[in-house]
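Reminder to self: tokens first, then the designed residues, so the page reads top to bottom the way the pipeline ran.
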């Protein structure tokens, strides 16, 4: 085999691999569940990671409400930073490849929404609640669209 042929085969394999990873990044690993939602198949530990992140967001919602009610808008900024875009860096790549693109877009938008809630703390408690209401609509949309199962 000549060097030229070897190089062409290597480039072809690279292109096929890149296309597959691109497809997986967009499509994810889903099937339609009995209730009409997209069911995302993950390993047990990956599912735990995603659900733990969601529980963290829910806990942050409660903490934000408590901080606003206590008049501690500085605390709102601290809380939202933990679940804002700073948290996205912790997502493992194997999980990201299994999630459908629409879920990733909704998730990123939700993390950005928490950053917006933190910024609203510079304005007023009412502004925080308005941004919180907007962001919670994304949580509702996500839970209405997706479920997570453990891959067989």
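Designed residues (152 positions):
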């Amino acid at each position: 085999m000549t060097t030229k042929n070897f190089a062409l085969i290597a480039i072809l394999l690279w292109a096929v691999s890149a296309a597959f990873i691109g497809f997986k990044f967009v499509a994810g690993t889903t099937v339609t569940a009995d209730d009409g939602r997209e069911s995302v198949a993950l390993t047990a530990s990956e599912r735990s990671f995603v659900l733990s992140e969601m529980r963290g967001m829910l806990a942050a919602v409660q903490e934000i409400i408590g901080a606003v009610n206590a008049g501690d808008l500085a605390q709102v900024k601290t809380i939202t930073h933990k679940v804002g875009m700073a948290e996205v860096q912790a997502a493992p790549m194997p999980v990201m490849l299994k999630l459908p693109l629409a879920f990733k877009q909704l998730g990123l938008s939700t993390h950005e929404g928490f950053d917006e809630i933190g910024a609203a703390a510079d304005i007023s408690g009412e502004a925080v609640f308005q941004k919180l209401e907007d962001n919670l609509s994304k949580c509702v949309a996500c839970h209405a669209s997706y479920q997570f199962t453990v891959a067989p």
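Residues 29-150 form a domain with the Four Helix Bundle (Hemerythrin (Met), subunit A) fold (CATH 1.20.120.10).
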